[in-house]
Every structure is written in C-alpha cells, then in structure tokens.
Design a protein that fits this description.
Strand order of the largest sheet: 3-2-1-4-5
Distance between the termini: 17 Å
CATH architecture: 2-Layer Sandwich
Order of helices and strands: EEEHEHEHH
Number of strands: 5
Radius of gyration: 14 Å
Strand content: 25-35%
Number of helices: 4
Subcellular location: Cytoplasm
Protein name: Putative pre-16S rRNA nuclease
CATH class: Alpha Beta
EC number: 3.1.-.-
Family: Belongs to the YqgF HJR family.
Pfam family, one: RuvX
Length: 141
C-alpha cells in the first residue's frame, strides 16, 4: 500500500491530487495558490501534504511540446521537481502531461460545469488526470 501525490504545477496555482491507499484512484485536493515571491511556501505546503498523507511518490506533470521536445514549462517542472527533493525525501517522477489540461477542460464542459467553476477546478482536475494516468500505467506494467 502506497500513496502517491500528483501535481499540476502552474505559474499561479498548483493542482493537487492524492491516490487512495491502494494506488488505484486519484482524488483532488485543494489547489495551492502561488504567491510570486513565496515559492518556499509552495514547497512547504507540498512537504506538509506528503507527511500528512504518508506519501511515498510525487508525480509532477511534465508539459512537453507536441513534438516531444521540452520547452520553458517543462523546464519549470524539472526545476520544481529538483527543488521539491530538498524539502521532502520522496521519489519524484515527471509524467508527460500533454493534453491533460485540455482533457480536464473537456471533462468539465461535458459535465456542464459553469465557466466560473471550471476556472476554479481545472488545475485540480488536471492533477487528477496526471496522477490517474500514472496509476493506470503502474497497474498495467
């Protein structure tokens, strides 16, 4: 039994999802609002969640360009993962997240969630999709 946390790291918010104890399903946790100069508090918030939920792995969305190259967003995710390791001694995994935000938007539109509410939960939904993709891959390997 192992809990995994999934993160959709954006410039303004961090979407967060947590697996169940069996590593089968991902549920959204409250999104972390980022303050421009308070990056340390982002890492501390995540380290707190890792400790609170006894998490063994962190899966971080890794945005790549459609041709597979790594752009600025991907480099930010790489740097975020590296720094997070200094705050918490758990394995961090970069997970290809191409299309997850678009997929999250589509799920919410299909569920008839209002535009205002979508804006509030899209990061959380993206984190859930990132983590669920990882969990599904683990289950089938």
């Amino acid at each position: 039994m192992m809990r995994v946390i999934g993160l959709d790291v954006g410039t303004k918010t961090i979407g967060v999802a947590l697996s169940d104890a069996f590593g089968w399903t991902a549920q959204g946790l409250p999104t972390i609002k980022r303050e421009e100069e308070q990056t340390q508090s982002d890492y501390e918030s995540i380290a707190h969640l890792i400790k609170e939920h006894d998490v063994q792995k962190v899966v971080i969305g890794y945005p790549k360009n459609m041709n597979g190259t790594v752009g600025e967003s991907g480099q930010r995710s790489e740097a975020f993962a590296e720094t997070l390791k200094t705050y918490s001694n758990v394995e961090t995994i970069l997970w290809d997240e191409r299309l997850t935000t678009a997929a999250a938007q589509r799920v919410l539109v299909d569920a008839d969630v209002s535009r205002k509410k979508r804006k509030k939960v899209v990061d959380q939904m993206a984190a859930v999709l990132i983590l669920q993709g990882y969990l599904d891959r683990q289950a089938h390997s």
